[in-house]
Design brief:
Layout (H helix, E strand, L loop, with lengths): L16 E8 L2 E4 L12 E13 L6 E17 L4 E5 L2 E2 L2 E5 L10 H6 L4 E6 L2 E2 L10 E4 L1
Antiparallel strand pairs: 1-2, 1-10, 2-5, 3-4, 3-10, 4-5, 6-9, 7-8
Length: 143
């Protein structure tokens, strides 16, 4: 008689997750994946801690460690036990208003017909902002 061992179901881990590697300045991997319910496109807050226990100066009560913001990101790729987050922070495009020279003289139908309207041009395109000083061991939680 051949006895099979039943498959042990993976227990879903909670959050926060831990940053297991920094891929590059825009991407990190966390130790939560498909088996933990992570799905592509989900948004996460990535943070570290100040390393210092903070105490209330009035009561002397320990308050914990200050969470230090590293950035936000979206799940780019989900594996069974890991997921890759990509920064979703955007520095907006810089735009400038270009005013074309107007025809000299009194405002008339003729000068209005030949005037060029003001234009808004993009001086610097929008670009992704990297995570701030993110490191292995930092944390990530869904937002």
């Amino acid at each position: 008689m051949d006895q099979q061992t039943p498959e042990i179901e993976h227990e879903k881990r909670g959050f926060p997750a831990t940053v297991v590697t920094v891929v590059d300045k825009l991407r990190v991997a966390i130790n939560r994946g498909a088996i933990d319910g992570v799905r592509e496109g989900q948004r996460y807050l990535v943070y570290g801690d100040s390393g210092e226990e903070i105490t209330d100066p009035e009561t002397g009560e320990p308050l914990g460690r200050l969470e230090v913001y590293r950035g936000t990101g979206r799940v780019l790729l989900v594996q069974e036990k890991m997921a890759t987050l990509e920064s979703d922070m955007i520095e907006p495009a810089e735009k400038a208003l270009i005013r074309e020279p107007r025809l000299p003289g009194p405002k008339s139908i003729l000068s209005a017909a030949f005037s060029v309207p003001d234009r808004v041009v993009e001086v610097k395109p929008a670009q992704k902002i990297p995570f701030r000083s993110v490191a292995r061991g930092d944390r990530a939680k869904p937002i």
